[in-house]
Amino acid sequence: AQRVTQPEKLLSVFKGAPVELKCNYSYSGSPELFWYVQYSRQRLQLLLRHISRESIKGFTADLNKGETSFHLKKPFAQEEDSAMYYCALSLNTGFQKLVFGTGTRLLVSP
Amino acid sequence: DVKVTQSSRYLVKRTGEKVFLECVQDMDHENMFWYRQDPGLGLRLIYFSYDVKMKEKGDIPEGYSVSREKKERFSLILESASTNQTSMYLCASSWDRSSGNTIYFGEGSWLTVV
User: Fold this and answer.
1) CA atoms of A20 and B62, how far apart (whole Å)
2) Partner-chain contact A43 B50, CB within 8 Å
3) Would you state the pLDDT for residue A9?
4) Hey, which of A36, A109, B7, B74 has its CA 20 to 30 A from A97?
5) How many CA atoms lie within 13 A of A8 on its CB side?
6) B103, A98: Cβ pair inside 8 Å?
7) CA R_g for chain B
8) What is the rounded average pLDDT of the residues A92-110?
9) Residue (of B16, B13, B68, B59) closest to B38 by Cα position
10) pLDDT by residue (tens digit) across A43-83?
11) Which residue positions in chain B have pLDDT lower than 50?
């Protein structure tokens, strides 16, 4: 069955430190993966998707099919990065059905 | 800007009441979704719709139903609310059936069932 695992509920780092939010997936089809972010009192929004191979707000994520992972990384964390981050897997059903992980709260301290 | 609007941000209902959560999108999106968001469980899909009057069950449809009479509006219905349905409910929409398109979320509706 398809599943997305985010092993850390909370990740706490200091400003300027590197950040890696872990995401592993289980899916027999061709995966399409996303990171969504929810800042305090804001709606959930797309951060980045693996097919775009882009860097958004300094964050990058590489799909590793061998390890079935899609970890989110940033070399130098900023306080404004504090938020809830969700990894999501799109099933190839044609309806953009997303399966979400349980989320990781990132807390960046000054 | 795409806008997904959930008309009720905070609701308190009694056990057994019928509850309607309304969602409207203004970008002519074909797909609409209802998720619930719970701490430690992430987002779980309740129902989705890919066209007017069409609906598909998600992962946790029990206790819920939906209605999509117009393209822009997708309603979530709790026929008889129970305390375990206390949660944050998120509506979302996206362009069409092809994968890779962004899903846009509403601000959420906090429902407390007492």
Assistant:
1) 36
2) no
3) 95
4) B7
5) 17
6) yes
7) 13
8) 86
9) B59
10) 999 999 887 778 889 999 989 989 999 999 999 999 999 99
11) none
- Which of B70, B80, B87 has its CA nearest to residue B20? B80
Which among B42, B50, B103 has CB closest to A102? B42
Contact A3, A61 (CB under 8 A): no
* Residue A26, token pair as written in the block: 């289980």
Nearest to B46, CA basis, from B23, B67, B69, B62: B62
Spatial CB neighbours of A42, under 8 Å, sequence gap ≥ 6:
none
Of the candidates A4, A24, A19, the residue with the CA atom closest to the CA atom of residue A105: A19
Closest CB to A95 among B40, B48, B105 = B48
Q: Is the pLDDT of residue A20 over 80?
A: yes
Q: What is the pLDDT of residue B11?
A: 95
| Dihedral (CA of A19, A70, B105, A103) sign | negative
DSSP state for residue B93 in the 8-state scheme: E
